[in-house]
Design a protein that fits this description.
The chain has 59 residues and is mostly helical. It has one domain. It is 46% helix and 0% strand. The chain is built from three helices and no strands.
């Protein structure tokens, strides 16, 4: 996440709300394993968040 710092828990709370709304609370709890939050640094191969529901549905 752009601008993420471990000291700011608001980012983590917002990310979980976003995930629950994007892919569904059930899928977050059942299909997604451990979640690691890092600041976005322009990583190669990063998948746009709008594609996340399809990725999770394929699990």
């Amino acid at each position: 996440m752009k601008g993420f710092t471990e000291e700011n828990e608001d980012f983590i709370d917002a990310a979980f709300i976003l995930l629950d709304n994007l892919v569904g609370e059930y899928d977050v709890g059942v299909k997604i394993g451990e979640i690691e939050f890092r600041s976005y640094q322009g990583e190669q191969g990063a998948v746009p968040i709008k594609e996340l529901p399809a990725v999770v549905d394929a699990l």
